[in-house]
Design a protein that fits this description.
Layout: H1 9-13, H2 20-23, H3 57-67, E1 74-77, H4 79-91, E2 98-101, H5 108-116, E3 119-122, H6 133-139, E4 144-150, H7 162-171, E5 177-181, E6 203-208, E7 221-225, H8 227-236, H9 244-253, H10 256-281, E8 286-289, E9 296-301, H11 304-313, E10 319-320, E11 330-334, H12 338-349
Parallel strand pairs: 2-3, 2-4, 4-5, 5-6
Antiparallel strand pairs: 1-7, 6-7, 8-9, 9-11, 10-11
């Protein structure tokens, strides 16, 4: 059985849109795409008067090297959000198919499914926020085409053991595509499961440059998967998804100096995460600091609402995650610079709001 047997057959048979950039072959004078012949003011050599490559070769090369995959196993999109949406549209028929998630988890899986008219099946994480493989398999129905696992988990912060991912992908073979969202994996002790792609055609891995690579504003996300899955998604995605300035920013971030800078900052975040965990546990009003392998901490407070307002009054914005299952008294605090982290601790330790 091919993994594409799980996908929508009408999309597999569809004639994809062929853009002018796809059809261009050589040439020096480009009059095939109805573009402007003149560069805009302040272009700085980017050539923004021309449509970008659908999958820019230089960026694809840089990302395949970074992630350790082949070019046909990688799709670059406008952040992981676009890739999640493409997966749901490719594999889920409206009113018939479903996805499976483990709350609490990243909200866009369910949003994309509901926009597509797909059902959302839930198999909650265990009480300690670990991945419950048995619960996932028990909740699986023939309608489920995609199973999303966020590791490290957002918003709780815990990573799923590699053994659990391997067990799950084996059990889902021929039944569903397992999508492992590794948005925060650079901050984790345990590495990526991308090396399992060659062994399991029903495994897909999401990666992003938004977190560890400091490019949230550039919107560069990748799907790493079986070549057939990548080819299918390329058929249905927008013809020109990646703006040239965003591609340029990504290439600079992935250069030698850019990678050295990112790894230095990742080290700072990991060290600051430990410091914040220890310091927060000693503060009055803090009930628990959940273990985290991401660049944030989920913290339980005696009065999370009052704490949120207190931080906000001091100019500090954190994420209120009380609406998530199991996190009814928690706030999510991103690890910032050492100075920003010290300010958070000072506000929480003080009886008054700092000016």
């Amino acid at each position: 059985m091919s993994v594409l047997d799980l996908a929508r057959p009408e999309l597999r048979a569809m004639q994809p849109y062929s853009s002018a950039r796809m059809e261009a072959s050589g040439g020096q004078v480009f009059l095939n795409a109805n573009e402007s012949a003149w560069v805009p003011v302040g272009d700085d050599g980017l050539g923004c008067n021309r449509y970008p490559e659908p999958q820019p070769a230089a960026l694809v090369d840089a990302l395949t090297t970074l992630y350790g995959v082949r070019g046909e196993q990688l799709l670059v999109g406008r952040g992981s959000d676009e890739v999640i949406d493409l997966l749901v549209r490719a594999f889920c028929n409206a009113g018939r198919d479903a996805i499976l998630i483990q709350p609490p988890t990243f909200g866009m899986y369910a949003v994309c499914a509901r926009v597509q008219g797909a059902t959302v099946v839930e198999a909650p994480l265990a009480a300690d926020f670990t991945l419950d493989v048995d619960a996932v398999l028990a909740a699986l129905t023939p309608a489920v085409k995609l199973v999303f696992v966020c590791t490290p988990n957002n918003p709780a912060g815990l990573a799923a053991p590699r053994a659990a991912i391997e067990r799950l992908v084996r059990a889902l073979s021929g039944r569903a595509l397992l999508v492992v969202d590794e948005a925060y994996v650079e901050f984790a002790d345990e590495g990526s499961v991308v090396d399992l792609i060659d062994r399991h055609d029903n495994l897909a891995v999401l990666r992003t440059l938004s977190k560890a690579w400091a490019l949230a504003g550039a919107r560069i996300g990748s799907l790493l998967a079986n070549a057939e899955v990548i080819a299918l998604l390329r058929r249905i995605m927008a013809p020109y998804p990646l703006p040239l300035p965003c591609v340029d920013a990504a290439l600079r971030a992935l250069s030698g100096p850019g990678q050295a800078n990112a790894r230095e900052r990742i080290g700072i975040v990991r060290a600051q995460r430990v410091r914040m965990q220890q310091a927060l546990r000693e503060l009055p009003g803090v009930r628990e600091v959940l273990p985290s392998q991401a660049n944030f901490l989920a913290v339980r407070f005696d009065d999370a609402g009052a704490t949120y307002q207190r931080l906000l009054a001091a100019g500090i914005v954190v994420r209120d995650v009380r609406r998530y299952p199991g996190l009814g008294n928690a706030l999510r605090i991103t690890i910032g610079t050492p100075e920003e982290n010290a300010r958070v601790l000072a506000v929480l330790a003080s009886d008054r709001v700092l000016a």
